[in-house]
Amino acid sequence: MDKQFIPRGLRRTTFGKFMAWMIPWILVLGFGLYAIYLCLAEGLFHTNMDNRFAFGLWIYLDLTVIALGAGAFFTGFLLYILRREEARAVINSAVVLGLICYSGAVAVLMVDVGQPLRAWFTFWHPNTHSMLTEVTFCLTAYLTVLLIEYVPIVLKNRKLRQIPRFLVFEFQLHKIMPVLAGVGTFLSFFHQGSLGGLYGVLQGRPFAFREALGIWPSTFFLFVLSAAAAGPSFVLVMTALVQGISKKKLVKPEVLQFLGRISGSLLLVYILVKAIDTLVWMNYTSPMVGFSAFEFYNAGSFGTWILVLEVVVLGLVPALLLVNGHMRARPLVLLGAALMTCCGVMLNRFVMTIQTLALPTLPFDAVLSYMPSWEEVATFVAVLAYGVLLYSLSFRYLTLFPQEKDIRQS
Amino acid sequence: MDQGTQKKSRYGMLIDLDRCNGCGACMVACAVEHNVAPAEHKATARTGVTWLRVAPMSNGGEFPATDTIYVPMPCQQCEKDTPCVAVCPQNAVDVDPATGIVGQVPQRCLGCRYCMTACPYHARYFDWWDPQWPKGMEQALNPDVAPRMRGVVEKCNFCHARLHTARTKAAAEGRESINPADYVPACVEVCPSKAIVFGDLEDATSELAQAVKHPHVFRFLEKLGTESKVYYRSDKQWVLDKAKSLQTV
Amino acid sequence: MKLTRRDVLRFAGGSVLGALFTPIPWKLLDDSSIWTQNWSLIPPLPRGPITTKFTHCPLCSAGCTAKARCVNGVPVGLSGVPNLATRNGMLCAVGLAAHHVAYHPLRLSGPQAFTGKDDGSVLMPVTLDALLASLGPKLRAVMSSASAGAVAVLDQRPGRAMSRRYQKFLSGIPGSMYVVSPSREDGMLGTLRALSGSPCGPMGFDFENTKTVLSVGAPLLDGWGVPERMQVLFADTSASGKTLMQIESSQSRTARGATTWLPVVPGTEAALALSFANVIFREGLYPKEIERTITDFPRYRELVLRYHPHPISALTGVSPDTIVDTARKIAGSPSIVIAGADPARGPLEKSTEILVAGLNLLLGAPARSGGITLRREMPDVDAGAMPETPLHRVPDHSIGLLIMDGAEYGESFPTSLLKRKMVADGGTVVLLSPHLSARSASADYLIPTPSPFESWEEHPTPPGAAAASFSVSAPLLAPRETSVDAVRFLGLLSEAIGTGTEGSTSPEAVLRQRSDAIQSAGRGTVYAPDGAEGKPVSAFSNGDEAWQAFLDGGCWVDEPAAPARSGRFSILGTLTDDELATAARPRQREGAAITLTPTGVRAAMSSGSISPILSKIFQESDLRGNSGTALINPTTASQLGIQDGSAAVVRSRKGTLQVRLMLDPAVRPGLLQAAVGPWPNGTSGTETMDNEGVLAICEVQEDGTWRFTDVTIEKA
Amino acid sequence: MFPWIYEFRWTVGHIIFLGVFFTVAAVVVSTVVLALRRSKKAIADPRREALQWTSEFEDLPAVVRACRHQLSGEVKERTCHHEFDCRSCATHPQFLARTAPAIHAAAEESLCGISMPLDRYYHRGHTWVKPEGDGTFTIGLDEFGSRMIGQPDAVALPEVGSAVLANGTGWTMRKRSSDLRVLAPIDGVVVEQGGPDKGWYLRVRSEGTEPQFRHLLRGHEIRPWLVRELERLEYALSSDGIGLSLADGGELMPDLWKQSPEIDWEGVWGSMLLQA
Fold it and tell me: Which of B53, B189, B192 lies closest to C92 in CB terms?
């Protein structure tokens, strides 16, 4: 029925089966859209956020998906700037993943703010000292870049490419892709950093506050590094996941190993810097403002285990596994380590967003707890469903893995 | 009114915690003054809007060796590196250099709540609901303060509307500076136990400038270096210890 | 030169382009963008001339002087009047928003009646005529039949000129009763009057001249009496040189502010009082003349000597040394002993009240400076007052038809107490109130009286005041057409039963009569609210002048009573030996049961009677509990496995209650303090009526008290 | 954002920040504008056919892009990087020099009943070109193509006088609901239109220089190529999960699609006609 839209030479499941996969996600998306409608039309009281937990699941989601979405910019950087041809096998998939992550994040952000219609005020009255301004500017610009990067992939659809105009435009666009990749890298560097800076500048939150290097707090650089490290891992994990779900081989094993190696090396650097940063914070930054760093880890259920888990178990361990060629060659180890890398970065974002807000500042504050409302979870899941839908559509009708047909035919 | 010709002021407060008995009159007067809407049915202590909040602080002792004081917590009007000002993406928060008052422009606020996470005093409040007054009550609203819409952040501004009124009066009477008696925030005015002293810290002769020199005067989270202008005083040692000590969870 | 169309277009295009490089379009865009953010959803602000009027807060018996800021004559803000000679010029949290009450969503829109009270009846709007047509025959029936019970008026704001009207109305009905609220702050003074051997006028506390106050549970620093007066005298005792000693089981706000706090085991206050007396007796610290003036001195002495501090210490949890020190302290200086309780907790047990009141007699406090003053009666037109019976002292099942007025003052009591006083079939209850409340559910007929600030209000002597006082508030708002004031209602009722109307028919005229009475009595001083010197009443040449002074917000304060010798008293009153024996015994606790005790804030125990804005302190902060919250000690909570803020079900023999438990180390372990708080902006009429809150599960004891109830707590 | 708007400050940070932002925005916008302008130009240019082929070629599976010398077994593995245009390939002449062209006595190559006369050159998109000796060249669909597609429902041939470009669109055919683009094997100007019934589709004249056939298959290359193409066809059909027998009694059946009309024939035909 939709066969004429499926790229030639690729084997895709029947339309019926495809719809059977899509419909549940469409329902989930619809449910999430209802929750979003409630939040937009009636107010944010539908969430379980409050004046003390002013940021919740959504901001966590934003920070996490943007960190993972870094795979798009980093793969582009590897391919177009560093000319690593291995990356070509996953670039289209990475662009779609990046687009999903960023557009999802921006959509959730628009629900999260109290007055989304005023979002443009940030451009009109920008406070250039605010990390959020930097994030907003870079995010919008980079989302535009991602959309432009997505256009050629769409235009190469079997039906669309029959229109000569599209094919030619795609061709021209593709030729200047390195420029866009360069711009994307630049923007990503800044907004990943600014997202880190978002919390690092919070002088009033000693748990998050970090020393400044130049005009940016250290978290700026930590976030850039960790996102660059997690991005390839996420692309790796997602590729493996799609291979698993579609039961097809999509890329050559060398490609995954290449991604793993890049991810591992960057993660190793990140962990090193993170360790130094943590030590400086514990011994200097935090005591300076009157808080003993370990006090933070006595609060509620946040013990020092969370630090060990983040830095060692989900940081150092996967980094060592990934840089070791022998370990990396085992597909399960490779996948596991990449997954751990992603989890480590997710945990880092959790600590920065949720733990920071849960911890008390005033002497009569209590440790707060926060449990997202169903509307928040539904919105979260809607983004997930949106991602699955967009990716599934792209996977079915567009060429996401150029190696796929070659692997089949060889 | 030309701000340039005005004398620079730094308005501040000193709250005597030993006098405060937690009656809440300041909170109610504040809400009435600033046309804060009554709570929605589901609002709680964590979603309510109270520009000034009185929070109990316990010495942590076991019964009967227990003691509790009440800490009125308005915006602390931080002066240096004001945490909320730097973070606002669209310049909806500013510090008035002429008064030292941290102002909030609700019409420009995006409602991102970044300033709320930045504020260590939790003195900022978000309008989670549409403001709603019982039918007819709008005629009992204070004509000097515009109500805020849903989805923005609001906070104490030391009754800026009263400052404006005092300035208008001064201008009408041909004075360059306002009469301090004309500018008294609502919470200060109504406190039945007269626990709050308000004034200009810049004016060394003011009651406030004198009173903050007392050794039992402190500010919360002083080490953060925000140079807040709301001072507290207590003669109880445990209060001083708790306010100054490292945080104990 | 010829202008072509092309030239014009080029000029226009060029202008537009040029304008882009000027600030004009940008600033315009900016201004309009900000302007568009002024939503139409937010209400327009009132505009008009701003005026200031002096009035008095009508929400409780203190009647504090207030300054109203008005726009178009409508009050938009209230503030206190500091440094007033009468020392009642600072408003409390509830009073500061009194001008909102008229707009409360629970306002009654017209007369309403329950149709068929017992079989799942519903409240229906009725016309006033229909209401009277239905009520009149019932009233006549009760009047004519002895078995149908008595006609009674429950006046929760006694002492008004209106109260006199009720008394006059009742005096025409044989067997009728004039009932007052069970929990009155100056209830102990009533007890003292009852102990007097000879007829005795009203009494007050001479706090100004006293040195030491021993308060047995009275919330002196938390809205008791005239709040500002208490604040000035006792909030900073180091400045005033006074001592306030608070005996209370938990650390209340008063206990915190007091010089010393004696944490006492709940229900053992009587034993503690006897133990103080024991020390005073053994050390001979009492004035010797009381041996003559107290009629039952030997019996008292014999009783007291059994209460040595050591055994009593074990009973009450107060150390022997503290008992001895406290006794010496109250005996060593002019001192007052007050018995009282949190306004929601109701009256003390009769024996406790008598034994605590007795300490005053033992110390020779009556008619002494710094002790208990004998106050003059307020000048009045209608003589022949009826005796006041507190509701809990009314014989059970004796009231056939009850008219309730002043319930909006919020002094609450369990509905079960009211039910018990009504005849078996429930009788007929008429409630005069501007709004719906939990009390409305007990009524058959609801009369919508004008709301505060719409009505003519009078503020007679506040509880515990040393001298009589009186002030008037003229309405600031136009009353609703459907409102029926009490004077008119009483007139209509009199007409309906054929006794005819007497006297003035408007509330204003009723107040004017009292003003005239004060003027013609010629005593005391009227203090203007602007802080000017008081003007002696004798200086008013006629009633109009005095009335004008009242309309301007003046407050009349009576002369102090002429020094009088205290009469003879019976210190144990009618207490029997059995009663005395049980009075000093601690409450029997069943197993591991928790003791529930209600707590509340004066004038704020009902949702409709206060401003919705009070959600700020009752709902939007942890400052005061609302009707869904209860405080519990962290130790007790951890024994029960309960966490801060968690929901729980409290179960007593009377029923169950859902609460949110808040941990507070100031609450005595084993005690559960559940708030009879309001839900200021949160409930609909039916919810308000159906939800009596914690009082619904409080057990009313034989003597009509409900201080303590054994409960169990389960996690919800 | 702009000078004279509230909160604009002439501070270094402000200027740098906004400067960088506007630079980025300008780069992004100009990139897109540039791409649009270039494509507008390209679409008007007849060479867009070449562009199209370049783009298509890149997306062909690696197997399809195998070098002709790999097909003929001269080299083990080699992928074409010249868009099947051996004219611009530097290695092609070396191959030619290395292996002397085998002389083929036979007049035609036949495999599975497909006969491919060797008097002509074959394009890998299943067209042939035959010099007519009078300076014109006939172009037609080879037997493999005809059998696979069968009788087309409609054919749209370029007008006489219009130019065709090697690897550009030769003509289009409509078969069932599929539009098929057949690639032209050489450059030329159409002088006569043929049709499926005539056995040829176009007669072209070469403008200017004599056409070169270096990029087309011939002689000994035909058999291995055909073998490969049959494999491809089989594979393309298997994409639909249908194991279709190509040959009946050793012959590729004419009107192959009739065997199983429900499958994605457009996909199969297109991929055999070198469309990505």
Answer: B192
Measured between CA atoms, the residue of chain A closest to residue D178 is A4
Q: Give the strand pairing for C594-599 and C709-715.
A: antiparallel
| Mean of all residue pLDDT scores within chain C | 89
Q: For residues A395 and D248, which has the higher predicted lDDT (pLDDT)?
A: A395
pLDDT at C410: 61
Match 């197997």 to its residue by tokens.
Answer: D63
- Residue C268 falls inside a structural domain: yes
Give residue C1's pLDDT band: very low, low, confident or very high (50, 70, 90): low
Q: Tell me the pLDDT band of B248, cut-offs 50, 70 and 90.
A: very low
Compare all CA atoms of chain C with the CA of D1 and give the residue at the minimum distance: C26
The amino acid at A224 = V
Strand partners, C709: C596
**What is the rounded distance in angstroms from the CA atom of residue B17 to the CA atom of residue A363?**
14
Q: Looking at beta carbons, which residues of chain D come within 8 Å of A158?
A: 267, 270, 276
Mean pLDDT score, C258-268: 93
Q: Is B190 in contact with C90 (Cβ distance < 8 A)?
A: yes
Q: What angle do CA C16, C17, C21 make, to 5 degrees?
A: 110
Please report the pLDDT score of residue C590 as a whole number.
Answer: 58
User: Which range marks the domain in which residue A85 is found?
Assistant: 3-401
Q: What confidence score (pLDDT) does residue D55 get?
A: 83
Number of domains in chain C: 3
CA distance C23 to chain D (A): 6
Question: Domain span at residue C676?
Answer: 583-715
For residues A182 and A174, give the distance between their C-alpha atoms in angstroms, rounded to a whole number: 13
Q: Is C624 within the bounds of a domain?
A: yes
Residues of A in contact with B58 (CB under 8 A): 364
Interface of C with A (CB under 8 A): 30, 33, 37, 644
Residues of A in contact with C30 (CB under 8 A): 124-125
Cβ-proximal residues to C264 (8 Å cutoff; 6+ apart), any chain: C247, C248, C249, C272, C316, C317, C318
Mutate to test the interface with D, among C26, C28, C34, C35 (most CBs of D within 10 A): C26
Lowest mean pLDDT among C159-173, C535-549, C574-588: C574-588
Classified by CATH at the fold level, domain B11-244 comes out as Alpha-Beta Plaits (3.30.70)
Token pair belonging to A404? 């796929």
Specify if C187 maps to a domain. Answer: no
Number of domains within chain A: 1
What is the arithmetic mean of pLDDT over A117-144?
89
> How crowded is residue C579: how many other Cβ atoms within 10 Å of its Cβ?
16
Note the pTM of the prediction, 2 decimals. 0.90
User: So what's the pLDDT on residue C458?
Assistant: 93
Is residue D4 less than 8 Å (CB to CB) from chain C? Answer: yes
Cβ-proximal residues to C559 (8 Å cutoff; 6+ apart), any chain: C376, C467, C523, C524, C525
User: Poorest-confidence range of A41-45, A81-85, B214-218, D118-122?
Assistant: D118-122
Nearest residue to C455 via CA among C107, C52, C135, C129: C107
- Could you tell me the CATH number of the domain that includes residue A274? 1.20.1630.10
Q: A406 and D52: CB-CB below 8 Å?
A: no
In this complex, the chains that touch B, judged by 3 or more CB pairs closer than 8 A, are: A, C
The whole-number pLDDT of residue B246 equals 52
CATH topology of domain D50-272: OB fold (Dihydrolipoamide Acetyltransferase, E2P) (2.40.50)
SS3 D69: helix
DSSP A394: H
Percent of chain C with pLDDT over 70: 95
- Checking if the pLDDT of D56 tops 90, the result is no
- Using the beta-carbon criterion (under 8 Å), do B137 and C228 form an inter-chain contact? no
What are the chain B neighbours of A205 within 8 Å (beta carbons)?
A: 117-118, 120
Q: Are D137 and D123 in contact (CB under 8 A)?
A: no
Q: Which residue has the higher pLDDT, C319 or C530?
A: C319
Give the model's pLDDT for residue B249. Answer: 41
Q: How many CB pairs under 8 A join C and D?
A: 10
